[in-house]
Every structure is written in C-alpha cells, then in structure tokens.
Amino acid sequence: MLNAGVLGAGHLGKIHLRLLKQSDKYNLVGFYDADEENGKKVEAEFGYKFFNSIDALIDAVDMVDIVTPTLSHYDCAIKAISKGKHIFIEKPITNTVEEAEHIRELLAENNLRGQVGHVERFNPAFLAITKEIKSPMFIEAHRLAEFNPRGTDVPVVLDLMIHDIDIILSVVKSKVKHISASGVSVISNSPDIANARIEFENGCVANLTASRISLKKMRKARFFQKDAYISVDFLEKKCEVVKMKDAPENPGDFDMVLQNAEGVKKQIYFDNPHIENNNSILDELEAFAHAINTNTTPIVSLNDGTEALRVATQIINCFEK
After folding, report:
1. Which residue ranges does UniProt annotate as crossing the membrane (predicted)?
2. Residue 295 lies in a domain
C-alpha cells in the first residue's frame, strides 16, 4: 500500500480523503489545509489526521494528492517533487502552461509519476464507448451548470470546459490547427459562458459550449464519424451508438433503411454498450496507484493535463482580442 496525504480539505478534498481511506491501494496518512480552523474541524468530524505543516505531511507519505485552489498547485507540486514524492494534481494542472511544463520536466528528471484529475476520462459512460470512437470529424460538447460561487475565481473555461477539452484531445489524434472563441461575463469578473471552436490539422472540428449560469445541468458530448454517431451523457452516465452499414438486398420489415440521392442504401442500427457502474474519482486515484507500482505512464498524464491547459489558455486569450 502507498502512504498517501492530501493537500486541501475543501469540498473536493474531503471526497478524496474519504475515498483514499476506503481504498485498499492506499494508506491514508493524513492531510494538510492552510486554514487551520477548517483542518481541525475536518479532523474532529471525520477522524483523519490533520498536519499543521505541509512539509511534515509530505515527509510522511509516498504520494501527495493536491486538491488545493489552482493558484497554489504549482508551489505544492514543486515542494512535493523536491522531496521525491509522486503527485496527483487536480485539474486544471496549474495556473499557467509554463508552470505545468516545469512540473512535467522535474517529474521526469526525478523519475516520479504524476497524474492530473481529469475525472471524466473515468466516467463509466465514456469508458463504455471509448473504443467506438474512431477518427471523429465533428464533435459537439455542452457542459452547463447552475450558478455556484465556488469556482468563479477562474474563467468558466478552466472551471468546466477543460473537462471536454481533455476528452476531445484524448480521442482526436491530430494537432490543433486553429482556435476561435467568445466568452461573456454575466455575474463574475471572468467569463461565465463561453463557446469555442477547435480545428485540427486532420480536418476534425470540435464545438464546445460551457456555462455556469444555466437553469439546468447538462454534460453531453456527441461524436460524428464515418458511418457512426456516438453520444455520451456524462451527467446521467448514459451513451448511445448509432451505426450505418450497407443495407441488405432484402431488408426485414423492421429494418431502418435510408437511401441517399445517389441511390446508395444504408441500414441504421443502434447499439447501447453495457455501462459498468463505478466511482470515477476512486478509479482515477487507484489507476494512479497502479501507475506508480508498475512504473508506467498514468492514464491522464502530466503531458495530457498540460496540453488541455494549453488549449484552454488559447481559448481564454481569444476573449481578449
């Protein structure tokens, strides 16, 4: 078992603490929180050991789970790496691409593992259809949330859209060619609603919309590729695959057959892949333990987290033009 420690005991930090405690891959040593009053309150309520020194906690563990505000990710990561510790770091990886690249370099130099908390990669609905996504040429993603003051210290792109940016970068095997975007600040000082269009060198186009001022929640993505349409509902954990194949000469009474202007007939059929229920956060944490124990590249690597941040930063820069 790996000795684990958590930095940050806010809303998400407490979830990480609970899951690390129940995991058979880790031994939860304790946590550190910059707010001593909150730290002692969490210790009293849940029984996790509170360290009043960040250095003391890092010294006592093998893996540091960084669940602090984004602005402090870099400093926490550097401190952990300097002490020879593996790091799990929540998304977005850091505040700037330069910080992310420095962390990535230091990890490599010290032969340490690092994983970024892009949890939607472990969403059961996405896992169920990942193998079905092959060379998508158009992608549409909507991630809408009701207003919550927590997280409004950063643009909605870093708060919400970055989830879909990472998903798209993981399935499109091509470099980004061009990005255009627009964003509007309605309640916060930074954009609360944004739309981005990402064009890839292979011709694929992704259209992303994110909002944190919606009346209802939505987390959906649709992938269009040759002879197939794939939809994923990350919120409801549902997915659907609609495929097309050459129609048989003598279709059955209930077969769905379409004919285009050239006279080509295609049969439409539906596939609903089996979805294995899981706890995505627990799975990502345990996948990281596996990467550490086997000295392999984590499923969501520091490179993945850096590239997602790079695209997110380019989108944000479009707002200022």
Report:
1. none
2. no
